[in-house]
Amino acid sequence: MPVSALPKLADRLALFALRRMGFRRRFVDTSVGPMHVIVGKGGGRLPKMLLLHGFSSAGVHYLPLIRRLQPVVGGLICPDLAGHGFSSTPQEGLHADNLRASLFETLDAVIDEPVVVLGNSMGGLAAIHYAKERPEKVRGLILLSPGGAMMEHHEIEELGRTFEVSSHDEALEFVDRLLANKSPIRSLIALGIRASFHKPALQQLIHSIEQDDLLTPEDLAELQMPAILMWGKHDRILPHSSFAFFREHLPDHIKLVEPDGFGHSPFLDDPDRLFHMVLGFLADIESHTAGDWRDWEPLTA
Questions:
Q1: What residue spans define the domains of the chain?
Q2: Per-residue model confidence as pLDDT tens digits over 145-181
Q3: β-pair partners for 143
Q4: Partners of 138 in beta bridges
Q5: Measuring CA to CA, how many Å separate 6 from each of 47, 178, 188?
Q6: Nearest Cα to Cα of residue 83 among 195, 175, 205, 176
Q7: pLDDT digits over 35-51, tens only?
Q8: Pick from 238, 161, 163, 173: which is nearest to 195 by CA?
Q9: Helix 6-20 to helix 186-197 angle, to the nearest 10 degrees?
Q10: Got the DSSP string for 65-97?
Q11: Which long-range contacts (CB under 8 A, 24 or more apart) does 39-42 make?
């Protein structure tokens, strides 16, 4: 087997593990092609959750977190964004508008009750947009180093260069920036990153970003549901100005925490610790009314 096939095999093995756990896969027809979604029932009474992945990732990559969440939540929904995972790539190419349109069409088809949405990086940006446009479907938000903060042109260009990986050594360097600590499987992650970053559709997406695609303070002001934003102290992917944007413009009721030991994707760094933080958030959504949500204090340990 060629080394380049290992990341795809890893994704299929993760999908197999999820199916053994009772999850099923579904393809939703959208205006840009079929979108892949993993759905499954949970064994608990806490709110159903929707997990949105980041750039070049896929729903199956949440497997370590899903294993912990399934026994305590009412269900889980894990879509693959267009051009990612097992979803199709639009024939006209991938850009912010059709990425968002296909996700909205997919979620409108599969969400049958309000959910708590967890989104990482680009998935965090998608979560914010969906919460803005479909507030009746979003019971709460958990944002993990969300993308989409306002940036200057030079910052957008620099971010695009971050995702240009031409060798295995550069991919390893990216992995070390992505995670808070060096992972024992960093070489496997690097193989997946290099394979994904070389996809023309993903390069088209990252280099098509313009300032009009980014969030404004007014966008954040529309978020009225309970929410928490976690920005890992070891995040070395997004510019510091992105964190500053959210810190300045988040509504007062949205809690912002900076966990030590978390990088850009904490579900890879420490899924057990992230699970317990998410669990505290879900439990408090169940026990608080909208009127006293502002008094909530997040679990940070």
A1: 3-295
A2: 999 999 999 999 999 999 999 999 999 999 999 999 9
A3: 119, 229
A4: 115
A5: 35, 20, 8
A6: 205
A7: 999 999 999 999 999 99
A8: 163
A9: 110
A10: HHHHHTTTBSEEEEEPPTTSTTSPPPTT---HH
A11: 39/75, 39/76, 39/77, 39/78, 39/110, 40/70, 40/75, 40/76, 41/74, 41/75, 42/69, 42/70, 42/71, 42/72, 42/73, 42/74, 42/75, 42/76
**CB distance 10 to 192 below 8 Å:** yes
C-alpha separations of 267 from 19, 34, 56, 148, 154 in Å: 20, 27, 15, 20, 30
* Amino acid in position 288: H
CATH class, domain 3-295, is alpha beta
- The residue type of 49 is M
Tokens of 11: 């994704």
Query: How many CA atoms within 13 Å lie on the side-chain side of 84?
Result: 27
Sign of the dihedral through C-alpha 38, 43, 49, 55: negative
From residue 61, give the alpha-carbon distance in Å to each of 23, 205, 211, 260: 14, 20, 29, 22
| Cβ proximity of 227 and 255 under 8 Å | yes
Q: What pTM value is reported for the model? A: 0.95
* Measured distance CA(45)–CA(76) in Å, rounded: 12
- Residue 45's identity, in one-letter code, is R
What is residue 47's DSSP assignment? P
Number of residues in the chain: 301
Instruction: Tell me which amino acid residue 171 is.
Output: A
Q: Are 192 and 12 in contact (CB under 8 A)?
A: no
Query: In 3-state terms, what secondary structure has residue 34?
Result: strand
